[in-house]
Design goal:
This protein is of the alpha/beta class and 277 residues long. Helix content is 36%, strand content 21%. It is built from ten helices and ten strands. It has helices at 8-21, 24-30, 34-39, 85-92, 118-123, 140-149, 155-168, 184-196, 214-229, 241-245; strands at residues 46-54, 60-69, 74-78, 100-105, 108-109, 125-128, 202-206, 233-238, 250-255, 258-263. The strands form two sheets. Strands 6-7-8-3-9-10 form a six-stranded mixed β-sheet, sandwiched between helices. A four-stranded antiparallel β-sheet has the order 2-1-4-5. The protein binds adenosine-5'-diphosphate. The site of adenosine-5'-diphosphate has 12 residues, from helix 4.
């Protein structure tokens, strides 16, 4: 067991990978056309370049999306149900491949057909999906601890850290309960705890407050805000315009798979971020 493991090790690994990838010489050897795109790359953690996704049903879920997310940014992806938010997040964690366009995350070209680093990619992100994907035969604590155990934490330490995280989402009294005994809102909070417990540098959250009441929504938003203030990059999809209006974060509005409006975030709130000149 790797007792000294810290999630930042993944981040360091990814940084190294990024350095390799942005070395134009490597790409000159592989594919000449890549060089101009790569050499203009800035420090963005996420880059989507003319990304479209059409499902076999001929539904166009994303259409020519261009998007960059800088380290430490909090970005809302806002739009009504069916506008393409989940598809966008699924493309970013490579749960889905776009029909066309390119996606670069941490400098890795994740849309390349030969991309093989899905494990490293996923370890560096916390994903809160709409269907929670919880283990139904485990307790609440075990569900969260599991995320740590698979990254090498000893079981005892994993359980203790899971316990701390569950307190942060208000579930300290449900830890030993079966997942099946929890309401949808409580299960959603377990899914959030599991995504955050590894302290990932990037969080992709798909409607994470969708099943929560107003008070719990504010509590959970407080947790996301704390993480953002510590430098975590957050991409947060929601259909709730009231929620988006409460915060001065960046908002990308999508409709019918297209970005139609952007509200710039207050960059002074991004750790290390500067206001625009
Ligand atoms: P949102 O998250 O904003 O509700 P989605 O990304 O889930 O939007 O869906 C965008 C569009 O793509 C919708 O019309 C939806 O019905 C369609 N869609 C999503 N997933 C699939 C799929 N696996 N197969 C076919 N169509 C899909």
């Amino acid at each position: 067991m790797n007792q000294g493991y810290h999630p930042c090790q993944d981040f360091e690994l990814l940084k190294k990978l990024q350095l390799q990838i942005i070395n134009p010489l490597i790409f000159l050897k592989k594919k000449r056309t890549r060089v101009s795109f790569v050499s203009t790359m800035n420090e963005a953690i996420i880059e989507m370049d003319h990304v479209s996704k059409t499902y076999p049903s001929r539904i166009s879920a994303l259409s020519d999306i261009n998007l960059e997310v800088q380290p430490g940014e909090f970005t809302f992806i806002a739009g009504p149900s069916g506008s393409g938010k989940s598809t966008l997040l699924r493309v970013l964690c490579r749960a889905e491949r776009p029909t066309s366009g390119e996606v670069v995350v941490y400098g890795m070209h994740i849309t390349d057909p030969g991309f093989k680093k899905i494990y490293q990619l996923r370890r560096a992100m916390g994903i809160v999906s709409q269907d929670f994907k919880l283990l139904r035969d485990r307790t609440v604590n075990e569900n969260v601890a599991f995320a740590l155990e698979v990254t090498g934490h000893p079981r005892k330490e994993a359980k203790r850290k899971a316990s701390d995280m569950l307190s942060r989402v208000g579930l300290e009294e449900r830890e030993q309960d079966s997942i099946l005994a929890l309401s949808a809102g409580e299960q959603q909070r377990v899914a959030i705890a599991r995504a955050l417990v590894n302290s990932p540098p990037l969080i992709l959250a798909d409607e994470p407050t969708g099943n929560l009441d107003a008070k719990m929504t504010l509590d959970i938003m407080g947790t996301f805000t704390d993480l953002h203030q510590k430098g975590t990059t957050i991409v947060f999809a929601t259909q709730f315009t009231g929620l988006v209006k409460r915060y001065s974060y960046r908002v990308i509005r999508i409709s019918n798979g297209q970005i139609f409006n952007e509200r710039k975030g207050d960059m002074t709130q991004v750790p290390g971020g500067k206001p625009e000149e």
